[in-house]
## 1
Amino acid sequence: MDIDGFPRQFARTRRFTLGVPRDITVSPDGDRVLFLRSESGVDPRAHLWMYEGGQERILAGPTTAYATDRDVRVVAHLLDGSLWTVRTDGGGPPRRIPTAGPVRDPRPSPDGTLIAYVARGALRVVGTDGTGDRPLAVPESADITYGLPDHTAVESIGRTRGHWWSPDGDALLVARVDTSGVERRWLSDPSDPGRVPRSVPYPAAGTVNAVTSLHLMTVAGGHTPVQLPHRAPAKDAPTGSWGLAFEYVVSADWQSAGPVIGLQTRDQKTMWVLRADPATGAVEPLARQRDEDWIEYPPGAPLHTAAGMLVLPEVRGDERTIRLGDVLAPAGLHVRAVLGSVGERVLFTASEEPTEEHVWAYEAGRGFERLTHTPGVHTATAGGDTLVVDSRTLDGHTVTVLRDGEPQGRIAVLAQQPLVTPRPAHLPLGERKLRGRLHLPSWYEPGMPRLPVLLSPYAGPGMQIVTKANGWHTAVCQWYAEHGFAVLATDGRGTPGRGVRWQRAVVGDRLGPVLDDQIDGLHAAAEHCDALDLGRVGIRGWSFSGYLAAGAVLHRPDVFHAAVAGAPPTDRRLYDTYWEERYLGHPDLEPLDYERSSLLPVAGNLTRPLMLVHGLADENVAPAHTLRLSAALVAAGRPHRVLLLPGVGHMVTGEGVADTLLTLELDFLKSSLGAGAGAGPGIRPDAPPVSSGPARPRS
């Protein structure tokens, strides 16, 4: 293992994401597969590729995004804000299309004759031959955009689109976003004091959201507002509802069933699915759901099949499932995403065991069928009789093309293999059977001195890192292990894939249950493996886990002896409406929940080494979170370290920054915990094996 070269490799490969196929599209006839991928594991420029007849070739690029017509013949793609088109049927080289400004989100019409795009907040259309550029909707002020999603939709809900073509290509469903009432944040670069600060609308908990309305616009110039309801009736709302206004457009699409829209109330307890009349804008309900805590739609839902069968999420006991027409998914499945449909065949992913995700299919008359079987995390894209399965397992990362269920070949994964080989032991930990992953040094043998322990979790809602798949998380954990740590990652309460009650255990308290699970997991791991020195325990993390790391040394210095907290959301009132109010309610109504979940009131508790890190260009978790905690620590007379990263956003991936940060964290933890000292027995003979042999990490 080249542990010295790993940090630079980690940075150069952007966490081993370069060279990985992404944004896969399969043509309806199953003949062509499009995807984005760079030409190597260190090339940051993605190209548009096509897999056809068992061969790959570059269609265009470099590019950052693309979209196609219905038949995947015409492709629109972006390069530095410029609009280009290319055909997949040999229609010549890529062609630049003149536009009215820098382009965002270009999307060809279903018949491939027009492209809708956004420039300077206006929704426009242009012919694929470059003629007829014209606006369909022009913003009335600088606070308004047409055809784009708002901050909350992108960052918290997961809706990344703001306009949708009709099946006939003669009209669009268009989002209008008004941020005039949203609080502004000013992002500046203190290292360049001459640069004017940038204004960013950010809806913090308890403040005003952007206003999103929907409009039906014809390419001939017609404009009809969709008559969306403003509020849910109080009689139809669940007990404890406090925000009945429909402030969130969770989903939208326009398929054969017409424009279908998912609306959610401010408190997220009520969800309506509506169908709009394309001529009048009037709406009719397709489904109404409510929940005492919150309604959660998996990605891809709601969905209509070609014949109009509606696929909706549903809670059955403790399971998040889906209803496909009149049929529920099999008992024991936790549905993770709806992948789409081909005809009346619906594809989705689900977990029976939380460390695995598998691809399933359902079709009336054929029932339910699990399509993947190797332990790991799988997803898929389909078209015609072709299925492209993206699989991440402990043996690596593969993208397999199947036709009529038979393998036809693979799309190459060009990502580099990490210079360290993960050697995790997957452990069920404690009474709650917490899923944990323990890494010991490859050189460690029973009888050697005990090792300082480093917890490296995420542990927040929306993401798991303890799965039957190797990736950058496992590689980083092993790198720390090779430097003399026993590294433990644990997914506790609040993480997805283990049922409704598991996710909702953090309602009213964002930190307490999560921290308890990390401590329980630590002690259970020490019972499995005598190599862990509980007298020297550190914790590191970023974003939610940065918040967890700082909270660990502030609340439980008896357990945790040092922490590195990156981009921690220390004051939950500063984070966004959708994410915080789901768990803590409105801050004016539940102030104690926000106080309980804030780190600022307990800053005076710090007695352990703490290193705070934050990118000054972070639009997701504002640098104010770290600066306010640091100010509270200074006021309390508590020494700590602060590392600010000019020009760096929420994700630290750049060479010269990501690699240096890893090294600085390592030095801090070594000096704080003393790697390499101590004594004690090694792994007990009856403990689970640390590794069943070297595992090839996923790319």
## 2
Amino acid sequence: MKDTMTTPEARTGAEALVAALQALGVTTIYGVPGEETTELMEAISASSLEFELCRHEQAAAYMASVHGRMTGRPAVCLSTLGPGATNLVTGVADANLDHVPLIALTGQGARGRIGRDAHQMIDLEALFRPVTKLSRTILTADAVPGSVAEAWRQAVSGRPGAVHLCLPEDVAAAPTDRPPVPVPAPQATCPSPEALDAAADRIRAAERPLILAGAGVLRGRAADALRAFAETTRVPVVTTFMAKGILPAEHPQTLFTIGQPGGDYIDLALGAADLIIAMGVDPVELSAADFTRDGRIPVVAIGPEVIPADAGWRLSEQVCGDIGMATEGLQQCIAPFCWADVPTFTATRDAMRRTLRRERSEAPQGPVAPQDICRVISDNLRPGDTVLSGVGLHKLWIARHVSPRRPGQLIVPNGLAGMGLALPGAIAAARLNTEGRVLAICGDGDLMMNLQEMETAARLGLSLTVMVWDDGALRLIEEHGGADSPDFRFGNPGWDALARAFGWVHARAGGLEDLPSVLRDAQDAAVPVLISIAVDHAAGGGLPGTKSGTPQEPEAGPDVYTSDGK
């Protein structure tokens, strides 16, 4: 690519926008261009920005979202006006609810057409406003640098999120001499000593405290601080789906994940707790009623922003500021105090470990129980690998049964929980991940949402693996329905022919005994690999955490929850 720009005196609005993005450190734009983005595409081509052509705008937004999750810095997703912009919305909303920094950029017709009934013209600023932290139409070329700077600031500040800028085609072509506007890097906010002291006093007064760690711990790069706190105080740690990996499965303080739709071992531990220390938990990650017992368990909240008063939490204390600083400050306030083991916590941990190791498939060949698939994936994970989950019934199994080896190794979308993220997200992850293999785990319904991006992966020459759980139905909907529910079954393509048509390699796992070698072979492949595997949901025992699932499983042993809650 050329790395030259026209002089500031002759710069167009489109060139000013590209220069502003470059000045702020943006490296990548994922998108689908259109006629109204012609000026912008020419400016991008003349810059050092990498433009990755996608096959659908929703996939472009998902790619930018995963880019932001992995780097902590926004990427851009680009569309043209009208249907291009409406296609972008789902992926943008997904990033915003998961608090991922992202910049959505849409073309638009000339300013004189805005607000009129005209071909492909809709109010894009209004369209994106409910699903972004900022949505703005840039009305003059001189306003471009400042608008980009403010969009960036809002995308990365506080709880990060998505922002949207709309660039009319005549503004993109208009001249401006305005230079990029600098944006200071966000500064970590020190929690107040008074708040730390109050929180420490409340924690010391608890007999059975429990840490609930959320996605904010990963965003705040505070996993090491939280681990040190847990090891020093011996307070157990439960994570949300999105925070898995903060503690490895073998760590003595881990109590695994919360968030299954029915009763789970972890719920027994929560019921025994007399205080929850919520570190970096976003209200969107799970219902407060799920972990506070409808507000009966008090909460000490630690995070960058105030928890809304109507979030349903029974807040005893709140520490606002950098999560890592707050965690280290609490540890200093509490040390050398530590807690004795709580029998229910210990029994919960041990029951989950037995559950994760139990084999459920009925035969070495044929459909495989979902728990067994997850166990094989966990056993074959290398530290440098990255795993992405799609959305559907398989996500619940992955969130409970896949055991990452490091923080951030497993990406589980859970705010908007939009189907179709895993495949395009794996493309973004494979561009960034130079140490290991990227594995996207999709249900067949999830994979078909953005199947066209298999061409994108092949065209970019990426090495990644997509595993599709082949069951021919929307299983999560079926599981929630009754005997008289509608039939949500569907047909699937021939996976081998499909993979070859896109230039991929297909590997079919014929059963549990095949799966480890199939996964290991895929890890070493230099091309994209599609693994298909038939899933035996009956052997899995129903939804994770439901009456047909975990608390009644035979390996649970004696009751782990005593009458006094201890």
